Amino acid sequence: MSAFTALLARDLRLSARSGGGAALALGFFALVATLVPLGIGADLKVLARVAGGVLWVAAVLAALLSLDRLFQGDFEDGSLDVIALSPLSLESVSLAKMLAHFLSTGLPLTLTSPLLALLFNLPATPTLVLFLSLLIGTPAVSAVGAIGASLTLSLKRGGLILPLIILPLLAPAVIFGSGAVSAALDGMASDGLWLLLAFSAAACLLSPFAAAASVRLNLGG
Amino acid sequence: MISSLTAEGLACARGDRVLFEGLSFRLERGRALALEGANGAGKTSLLRLIAGFLAPKSGHLLLVTDQGESDDGEERGKHIGWLGHQDGLKPQLTVREQLSFFAALYRGQADCDAALDEVGLARQKHFPCRFLSAGQKRRLALARLMLSRRPLWLLDEPLAALDGEGEALVRRLMTRHCESGGLLVAATHAPLGVPAIRL
What we know:
A: 221 residues; mainly alpha; 10 helices; B: 199 residues; alpha/beta; 6 helices
């Protein structure tokens, strides 16, 4: 097994075991998506109209729950020192951690979204667009989140500052994602998914470098 | 292989506070360096400096290897086996999972069972780490250090939490490491029990 897959497998294993937070994110997402229709009431038109925005925001917030521990756990117990001295570069370490976060939260959220879209009376085509937008967009949530997590890794309760750092950066993803769902609901063509793809690709390419630089800074602090 | 590690006029500061300055030493292959000093004297900081996590305020560190000389911290890190004062273990993972992860991270294949045997954890192989005592965790961290197969060991309080037998194990590992041409720098309170230059 290569060093990269070893780290990926270990982080996935940790997220699945107690205290990992993968199931927590999924539960949070499902509960928010269930509560909103209860709060808004049974106006089916309104529900379908807000579905894209609500599910996107809920997905971003759910992914946030486990993001703060992305580097912090390893930093606190000293494993990050050992990992940093391994042959794997910190850029690859960051990429592996991002990928593990996407596979343990973003992907399960995406897979359950069609089910939750039913609660919003969302028709088939917009539901498919929602599914695709989450599939394309949640890697960006993990990638941008990794930058925030690496900046706050040495702070006690850094999880409280994390949303303030990354939520503004994720605004484009929410706009493009929910915009694409709205357009599909109106039967209109939209570039939302393409813009989202561009945003996601840029985030995934750049953030390993940003996160690695910030981890390096924190290891010396 | 490393032939020597040299420090010249090394100074280290955390924030505005200068921990030490004008520190020089030269460590040849097969030798051990024991760092002794009061709490807060900067032993751990010196280890982190050698590991390349910290940058020196002034002075430099030179590592001479087969491939030439280098004073780059990141480059130096690729030769280092690290035993920090924290063990770096996850409570949810079993002893075996933990060790095979680090072995894979460092060099692909390794005989984890033999290493666990050596540190006396063969019977606890399938225990989650949360059930281990402080001394047993230390032993597991030692097994990881062994498997890293790095020529320059940096040890922070290697004897902490260990029983008599555990201390003997550490001394045996350190002696073997030095005899096979490795170098080691250890921050310690108790006498190391291996021939070492004291600083």
